[in-house]
């Protein structure tokens, strides 16, 4: 499922009524990816209980839970939001932590001196500048660091980095 449009969801190029989309979502978590669904429920419940979520690298995000709500509906809506944001923090925060560690390592372990310049980070991308003569070596170095950082977290799950050498940044 890609994004919602009021009472419909866009799914694989087709507009699907909301009830059908909810059924797809339920089946996705309960039948196809049951382990992820169980993990998601476990993390969401823990986030609500502790009032914070934590990335695998230890960074925390806290929530302040109001004592009173206008209605039971508002309470349930707020609880669902906190759980959803907490789960997202664990996943997205881990990616951000990996990126920060990779950037630090690239800077600290840079064997190219002024030949490698970190220009900018764009979400999960690192844009660097290097002379043409060493561009391929720099690419291997940067992507190698990114893979190593991911492996520290992923363990036996294969890590992959996509990238390219070009004269300018492109999407």
From TrEMBL:
User: By its UniProt entry, which InterPro entries does this protein fall under?
Assistant: DNA-dir_DNA_pol_A_palm_dom, DNA/RNA_pol_sf, DNA_polymerase_A
Q: What is a biological process (GO) this protein takes part in?
A: double-strand break repair
What the entry lists under SUPFAM superfamilies is as follows: DNA/RNA polymerases
What GO terms are given for molecular function?
DNA binding; DNA-directed DNA polymerase activity
Q: Which UniProt keywords apply?
A: DNA replication
Residues forming the DNA-directed DNA polymerase family A palm domain are 16-170
Q: What is this protein called?
A: DNA-directed DNA polymerase family A palm domain-containing protein
């Amino acid at each position: 499922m890609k994004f919602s449009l009021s009472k419909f969801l866009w799914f694989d190029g087709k507009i699907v009524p909301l009830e059908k989309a909810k059924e797809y979502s339920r089946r996705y978590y309960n039948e196809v990816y049951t382990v992820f669904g169980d993990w998601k429920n476990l993390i969401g419940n823990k986030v609500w209980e502790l009032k914070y979520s934590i990335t695998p690298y230890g960074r925390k995000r806290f929530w302040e839970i109001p004592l009173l709500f206008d209605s039971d509906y508002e309470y349930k809506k707020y609880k669902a939001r906190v759980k959803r944001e907490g789960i997202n923090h664990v996943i997205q925060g881990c990616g951000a932590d990996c990126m920060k560690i990779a950037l630090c390592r690239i800077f600290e372990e840079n064997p190219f001196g002024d030949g490698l310049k970190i220009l900018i980070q764009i979400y999960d991308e690192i844009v660097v500048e290097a002379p043409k003569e060493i561009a391929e070596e720099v690419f291997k170095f940067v992507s190698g660091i990114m893979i190593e950082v991911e492996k520290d977290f992923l363990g036996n799950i294969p890590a992959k980095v996509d990238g390219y050498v070009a004269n300018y940044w492109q999407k």
